[in-house]
Amino acid sequence: MSRSDAAAVLMIFDPKLERGGGQVVLEHLLRHLETQPAVHLVMPATGQGKISIPDGVTRHTDLDAFSHALSPGNAVVMVSNANSGMPAVLRAARRLRSRGARVHTIAIVHNYPSDPLRAFATKRLLGEFDEAVVVEPGLTSLRADARTPSWLSLEEPLTRAADYPAGGITRTGKVKSYGRPDHEKGLDLLPAIFGPLEQLGYECRVALGSGFSEDDRYARRLRRDLAPWLVDGRRDSSWIEPGDIFIVPSRSEAACLLAQEVLSRGAFGVASRVGLMPYLTPDNLGMRTFPCEDTAGAVRAAREALEMDADRFSLECLEGVRLIEHRAGRWYADVVRMLLERRAAVVAA
User: Fold this and answer.
1) SS3 of residue 289 by DSSP
2) 10 Å Cβ neighbour count for 118?
């Protein structure tokens, strides 16, 4: 790599092998950066196969390969896109600095740690980064001076208010959910929610994706317990129909792109009161929340949406569509601008 090519390197590291919300964000960030010079992605080959990577982005499968491609004295902005990747990025940054490179480190924080020990470790690691960026303001509990450009929204709205006829959105009477078979997603709570709703005559369905935790025992039990409602094959946002009721029973979330997809598709969200979700719709339109793991509360919230006056239901769903339409893309624009500013600053230093 020539010095002119390496004058301002921007590297994003993600160690994940599966595709989750953070990897969707990564995919969109790379698309926003694809016309910029010297943008590098470091990610295992398996993970790279789960996302779309623009041709202009230079790929590496590990940080050693990336580091060896640099010349002494290079200016580098190193971005960690996952909590689990932070230690490796900090180690690589120390090695590069020892070789004379000018390095600026940034951590993007997508998730809350799953337990107190991980929270302690995450806070300590974040303190070693030059900067941190969070996807929703509550994550500043991990680092008080983290940048909060906006809460993370969808890059583009899935539907717009103008897409709907004058008659608005008609309730389907269907109750749906999907997610990864990981404990924090809370899909094991669905039988206690779907059972009472099904007894009232409502159709309930759930689909499962691929898990991060690799807890095969939990995944097998989940499939067994969800069997009466489980649909074959993976699903994406296109499965969400305008007028559906969609359950998001998570135990731990930050921005929760799934909840935003629900609103943007014209469906009504019923979600755990975690992360951004209590604040997603300030006027409480198009979504109701319930205390984490409160399945009776989830049933009450779902029934409210299912039994709501039809005109009111339509109005609330359309307000959800408008909210995401209004917010879409803001976080990405703010973060990309910040990354490019930091790259220019580290070169000039």
Assistant:
1) strand
2) 14
Strand bridging mode 9-13 / 131-134 = unpaired
Contact yes or no for 14/84 (Cβ under 8 A): no
| 302-336 core/surface letters (b: 16 or more CB in 10 A; e: else) | bbebbebeeeebbebbbbbbbbbbebbeebbeebb
- pTM metric for this prediction: 0.85
What is the rounded CA–CA span in Å between residue 79 and residue 114? 22
Q: What are phi and psi of 116, to 5 degrees?
A: -60, -35
Burial class (CB in 10 A: 0-12, 13-18, 19+), 241: middle
Tell me which residue has tokens 């109701």.
288
Parallel, antiparallel, or unpaired: how do β-strands 203-208 and 174-179 relate? parallel
Show the CA angle centred on residue 138, arms to residues 136 and 143, nearest 5°: 100
CA-to-CA distance for 126 and 211, rounded, in angstroms? 26
Per-residue pLDDT of the chain (349 residues; tens, 9 = 90+): 433 344 589 999 999 998 888 999 999 999 999 999 999 999 999 999 999 999 999 999 999 999 998 877 789 999 999 999 999 999 999 999 998 899 999 999 998 887 889 999 999 999 999 999 999 888 999 999 999 878 888 999 999 999 998 778 999 999 999 998 989 899 999 999 999 999 999 999 999 987 666 678 998 999 999 999 999 877 889 999 999 999 999 998 888 889 999 999 999 999 999 888 887 877 789 999 999 999 999 999 999 999 999 999 999 999 999 999 999 999 999 999 999 999 999 888 7
**Nearest Cα residue to 71 out of 40, 101, 41, 102:** 101
- 262 neighbors 240 (Cβ within 8 angstroms): yes
Q: Which residues pair with 134 in a beta bridge?
A: 109
Instruction: Write phi, then psi, for 77 (nearest 5 degrees).
Output: -105, 120
